[in-house]
Amino acid sequence: MSESLKNKNVLVTGASQGLGAVIAKVFATAGCHVYVNCARGVENAQTVVDEIVASGGSAEFFQCDISDEQDISLKFQSLKSIDILVNNARINPYSRPPGSSEAEWFAQVFKVNLTGPHLVTLALIEGMKKRHWGRIINISSIQGHIPVPRHMIPYGVAKAGLNELTRCFALEAAPYNVTVNTVSPGMIVTENISKNLTSDEIEERNQRIPLHRGATPEEIAEAVLFVAECGYMTGEIVNVNGGLWMTP
Ligand SMILES: NC(=O)c1ccc[n+]([C@@H]2O[C@H](COP(=O)([O-])OP(=O)(O)OC[C@H]3O[C@@H](n4cnc5c(N)ncnc54)[C@H](OP(=O)(O)O)[C@@H]3O)[C@@H](O)[C@H]2O)c1
Questions:
Q1: pTM
Q2: 67 in helix, strand or coil?
Q3: Angle ∠(120,29,42) on CA atoms, nearest 5
Q4: I need a labelling partner for 176 at 20 to 30 A (CA). Which of 128, 129, 208, 238 fits?
């Protein structure tokens, strides 16, 4: 039987837009109190909070740069005990600053997409272990499992690292009833998809996906909720990619 998540405190990193915003809403609908995090998009994040509260849910804004160790140690003190952590924040792989060197871009992607989840997990996992209940869900990507084009290598390698992070913390935390899993989407049709891909590129991907379409953010968020509700799964990678996983 799935566990009730009512009144659990949830931190969703990178929830000012896209998938994170929808995950925040889905957990609020399940009766959780949700911390809506981002580093920069303050207005967007506040809108997500306002929408949750307007529909009867419980949420608050939590600004913190999850890649900044000092920001974490300063700001995390203000959080109530976090029961569920969703490591969703990412630096957009399509947003490489012009003129950045290979090493600079690689380091930047790793800082947000891999070091960030590691630091946030370290900040919260001991509390979960002490309370003998916790869920950590890392949002990875199919690009962490398959060979990717050269410009996506830092992103893919960081996501592959995130999958390993899941396994390491899953084994450590299992004796304390804390599960750690990955949800790994393929293409998600967020409100920002057209900023990253042309309509031809989207159509080309649709054709390659056996289900012939990208996921809605709600479909991925429901998978994240399922993982949080399931107390007997840990160290897993839940692939939610329309079957793309199976194609050569
Ligand atoms: N979109 C897809 O097709 C797709 C496919 C597979 C996997 N995924 C994964 O799904 C997750 C969400 O993707 P998305 O498309 O919704 O992402 P997105 O639109 O690029 O949003 C990323 C979020 O992360 C936040 N963020 C960035 N840097 C941060 C930092 N240092 N500290 C805190 N928050 C930070 C951003 O807010 P601010 O910039 O305002 O701080 C924003 O809220 C990511 O992990 C991504 O890799 C996405």
A1: 0.98
A2: coil
A3: 50
A4: 238
Q: Is the CB of 217 under 6 A from ligand 1?
A: no
**Residue 167 contacts by C-beta under 8 Å, 6 or more apart in sequence?**
235
Per-residue pLDDT tens for 89-130?
Answer: 999 999 999 999 999 999 999 999 999 999 999 999 999 999
Residue nearest to atom 13 of ligand 1 (CA): 19
In the three-class reduction of DSSP (H, G, I as helix; E, B as strand; rest coil), residue 190 is classed as coil
Q: 18 CB under 6 A from ligand 1?
A: yes
Average pLDDT over every residue of 175-184:
98
Active site residues: 155
Question: Does the Cβ of 161 fall within 6 Å of ligand 1?
Answer: no
Span 55-64, average pLDDT: 98
Q: Are 162 and 138 in contact (CB under 8 A)?
A: yes
CATH topology of domain 9-239: Rossmann fold (3.40.50)
CA-nearest residue, atom 36 of ligand 1: 14
Mean pLDDT on 73-77 = 97
Domain ranges of the chain: 9-239
Question: Contact, 54 vs 122, CB < 8 A?
Answer: no
Residue 15 contacts residue 48 (beta carbons within 8 Å): yes
**DSSP assignment string, 18-38:** HHHHHHHHHHHHTT-EEEEEE
Query: DSSP class of residue 174?
Result: G
